[in-house]
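Internal QA ticket QA-208
Title: Verify multi-chain structure generation after dependency bump
Assignee: T.L.

Test input:
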Amino acid sequence: MASTTVAENARINKSSQKQSFFLITLKRLKKNKLAMVGLFFMIFMILVSVFAPFIAPYSYEEQNLSITFQTPNKEHLMGTDNLGRDILSRIIYGGRMSLRIGIIAVAIASAMGIFFGSIAGYYGGKTDNIIMRVLDIFQAVPPLLMAIAIAAALGPGIMNAMIAIGISTTPAFARITRASFLNVCGMEYIEAAKAINATDRRIIIKHVLPNAMSPILVEMTMGVAKAILIAASLSFIGLGAQPPLPEWGAMLSGGRNYIRDYWHIVLFPGVTIMLTVLSLNMLGDGLRDALDPRLKN
Amino acid sequence: MQSNEKEVLLSVKDLKVIYTTDGCMVHAVNNVSFDLNKGETLGLVGETGAGKTTIAKTILRILPDPPAKVLNGQVYFEGENILQIPEAKMRKIRGNKISMIFQDPMTALNPIFVVGDQIAEVILLHENISRKEAEIKTMQILEMVGIPGERYGEYPHQFSGGMKQRVIIAMALACNPSLLLADEPTTALDVTIQAQVLELMAELKEKLNMAMIMITHDLGVVADICDKVAVVYAGEIVEVGTKEDIFDRTKHPYTVGLFGSLPSLNMTEKRLKPINGMMPDPMDLPQGCNFSPRCPYAIDACREKDIEFTEVSPGHFVRCIRAEEVK
Amino acid sequence: MRKYIIKRLLWMIPVILGVTFLVFSILYFTPGDPAAIKLGADATPEKIQELREEWGLNDSFVVRFGKYCYNAFLKFDLGKSYFNNRSISQEIASRYPNTLIVAFLSVFLALLIGMPFGIMSAVNQYTWKDNVSMLFALLGVSMPSFWVGLMLSLLFALKLGWLPATGFAGPSYWVLPCVSIALAGAGNIARQTRSSMLEVIRQDYITTARAKGQTEGKVIYYHALKNALIPVITTAGSLLGIQLGGAVIAEAVFAVPGIGTYMVSAIKSRDYIAVQGSVLVIAITFSLLMLAVDILYAYIDPRIKSKYQSKKKEKHKVNVVGKEA
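Actual output:
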């Protein structure tokens, strides 16, 4: 009976804390100027991608061979490429590709990583050992190389790139989830939940996961950044998005042959990738600081 | 008493230290003054967070700045205001004439260097001798604190907590300091080890004729080894005097409260008497006497303006306007 | 200590077999028949069948995997390219040194740039020096390295003409590929050094060192840095792996005749057995490097070293007791 009330109390406390926890994090995040800049830039990028057809001045695939290689001017703010396509419009549509690849790849990686990581962290012992040894093997292949191998096997294309990046970044998520679970599972409210005979699944999903989420959230933010970079690399060597799709890495790959005379073709997509990844990293840094229990009070 | 023992070694005057975090100001130490004679032991007593450690770190000038800042006051050591001297000169004093023992022996030693080298480092810094000689001297000091000299080459993690504290004591005493600042040297240790370490410190203090400031919240420790006692509350010294003054002729209500919360063997009461309430938020100290919100003797006058230090008997100072009525 | 090293070496065997299995199975399930691709659209089924037999493609997965391991580990033979029938081992052996030069030099460069900035940032936390160097570090990790490579070659090779843009004929050719992937690494190292340094500076033993009368410089570079470097070594180790992957991309930008360009052209010609061999070689290199880092780690951190020494002593005691009984 006593343990029931402890568990109940823990639950009640948690639900009332959930909102305040979110608000506290947001409040502390607001103090961090870099993180806020990152957050606003990301919101801006997402809005631009969603409303691309209304914002982009031209179509991303419309070719006009009479205006190839134009340097930035009034009609084409970022110039035109080798087929006379408007680079700004392609970058705006490209956001749809790159952001989607980043987000879906992280969704795949975090889903698998959290699944294996939580099992390893929660059950420990042999299960943990086996999962960790398999991860050791996975991590013996550098992530970019793993992504290249998987993408090469699956063949080029955006969907395959997402899967390749997702699988190759899974071990990082599994490790972080496991470490975080090991921390949380030592807490008394988990003991209490076990004492009232809650099923393992219930304990993991209802009690452990919400409390173990902070470092995973940070990794997810940074993970989108990493995924966008890997996706760009894949496209660059011809494994990611295929022409005429305006993915940013593919734009760089397509423009590299003209770099000597028409640098603007390569400059703008690269800067866009950099700014997007930079703001995700700033947001991730800020989140990590805001969620750091050592800095609380 | 010999006359040279009456010589003043350390004199702290009107010391005021603040911490600034996120634009908030924390008054850690307020108008603290006290004198310490050669060879004497002063007990600095008070609750956690009262500002005791800050006082000690200010004397050694190792407060992290920022966030800490010494606003006001002087610290005279051997007649010189050491808050004013250049850093290079202060380094000659640190570890040499004044040294400090820290609270937690588990974390006070560098984990990747052997303990012997960490002790020899102090000797090499302050004495003009060769490395070989410093090593020999280190082994002698280790023996002095009860550790076999052969353990020179072992790493901190190979020592137990009590042994680590002995290493730290050895490090502090390596250059025969005239003043030792001991910041709760026994708090982190097991009770049985506590007694051993205290005994060792008292013995070495006698042998080396050092003065010592013993920071503690344990009145038993004070009764054991201190000559003088200063009671600190919310960054202020509220009462200072000889051990006898403080224990037998208690004048400040807070000191009375401290003794009331102490169990004693011949006690007739069933319950301890804790002091009601909490120490005030150092960011937001009350008007007038800092203890007034918790004080059973408090009257309106206590809350009006800061209370002056008054001498109730020679050398016994109290910061309370109703001191004469307190028992 | 020796026992620890032997234990780690033995653990390498299952890791390497596991990696081989992983890479082999990824590329085994690749759609498309290499023999049919090789012979083109107008090949007769008989001819294709003949070639499949020759290449051993008709064997079962287990047999093929066994044969591959046998050849790879006992004869150092990674098979013949489907594309041009050349020995993959020889191709890789002639190209791999170039890749290693790029990867190692870039890690070295990353440490050389990243560590001083990280230390400076930590020592001057929250000052303009900290802010500026951390902003640069963040920029470094946020740029795609191949784009940095393109931009650097545009500036220093095509516009200024100071350095060669492509090829790998001597040290001047190494500069651009190394720098272009070292920038991200330097950012990474600077960030790691800073946070690790800040963690250490907070520790009590740093206060102890100050209380001894030690100079601030010695406190930082003698007492703090050595402790702070322990996690940085791990970062540098995994950075080697990242740079081996990054080298693949940098090679594509600068046309360096390394394993990366080999792999990329193999991917384009769907020569999967060559891709498989290349990935395997890099993965094994990386595993060996991580092993070296682990052992280095144990030498630097006395806590790890003595953990194994004391275990050895205990075992020894048990043996003695066993004999007596």
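Spot checks passed. Chain B touches chain C through 27 residues (CB under 8 Å).
Status: verified.
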